[in-house]
Amino acid sequence: MRKMIASRRSLLPVLSAALMIGCGGERHFALEADVLVNDPSGDRGNNTTQSEAAVARHRDVVVVGYNDSGEFTRRNSMTGFAYSIDGGASFVDAGVLAPVKGGRNLGDAALAVDRDGNFYFATLALDARALSYVGVARSKKTKGEVTFGEPVLIPGMDRDAFQDKELIAVDVTGGRRDGHVYVVWTEFPARGPSRILFSRSSDGGKTYSKAVRLSQTGTGVQGAMPIVSKRGELYVAWEDRSGLNRGHVRLRRSDDGGATWGPELTAATFTRIAERRATAACFRPALNGHIRVNEFPSLDVDRSDGPGEDNIYIAYAADPGRRSRGDAADIFVVRSQDGGKSWSDPVNVVKGRAVTADADETANDNWMPVLDVGPEGQVNVFFYDRRNDGANRKIDVYRALSVDQGRSWVNERVTAESFDIPPLKPNFDPLVKECYMGDYNAGTADDAGFYLTWGDNRRIIKAPRFPRGRPDPDVRFSAVSLRP
User: Which of 11, 65, 99, 137 could form a disulfide with 479 if both were Cys (CB 3.0 to 4.6 A apart)?
Assistant: First the structure.
């Protein structure tokens, strides 16, 4: 087992810090310096990619999952993870989630935790016959260290299909379905279009129900995400990329834990992201630097007793309609106040009239948002951002925060320094597809703050074929305050 403690000062005192006023009267959030999660010393050669982070937290235990290419050839698993027992001030690199006997884990980490502190870790998995599944492992130990059992394999509807991009949620309402585990993912059949599938467990992850299809329309659906409201309503949103340039966010709701589902609804319609030169080079939608890109939705619900109670929020990246001026991607949020039946117009949370402080004044890229709602209804969205580089290349992590149900937003930089892009076309890592720099990041929230984890390339290393050095993809973690 690889281990490393990545220490920084305690995260907790900063979360209660008051508003700070900088020179000129600008408002700033109280931010914790971000922490390296994975241990780079275990990387080998150019198999050094850690990406697509997931996170769950229960009290002082934080678990972060991620793709880890360096482990795949040694342990037949690309699904790495690290844990913290001090609230995220330091992390132990625990290696990888072990596959089933004779099988392999292919990454796409997803995490959730129940009220008792049992963590559920989802991954893409192959069995000994190389058939594709979604695997979900439950934690065996969470005191002193975190360990997981063998994944339970969930088949799709088509035995020969490939299962992809799964996410997971757990009911923590204390109600009659408390502890139920919900899994959604995309199935790519051998023939025909992709489809969004759903399965659930009512016995603590020991068994899962037969997969059912949620998507009713669309030929290019992907990126499904589940959430549970404070009364137990289950929502699933996904992206429908069926059109050439247009995209849609679709949503379905279940009031009985996934036994039955309401109709498919449309939460948003947008223009898809595609920087012309990068897209032509990658043969798929991409941004400057050959970074493949999507518009996957990120959603959460207001579980507070405040004025925004039960509001549903969805964030996504999209072309703001200014591509001719170089602006290929901004971050938008839509809101529903009636359980998903109707939706607000999209609000740009990085620039425009809704942004009241520290707006992005450039035409540079903002993409890959993660949305979480805090305990008092605060809406936090963090994302990749290039506003600090005139060449629209180097990347930061920013966040946008709203404390008035998404009507107005303030922006704040999270990363202490910008990071560059590793060689992606071809990819420096022979185990990773070209134009890949990760398809998602993750966050969560509790009564103390928002917790963010993301792929970050700030470390420069010398490696085979790159004797002068190249950016190295790692995973980092940060805690940010609930209020400005």
Answer: 11
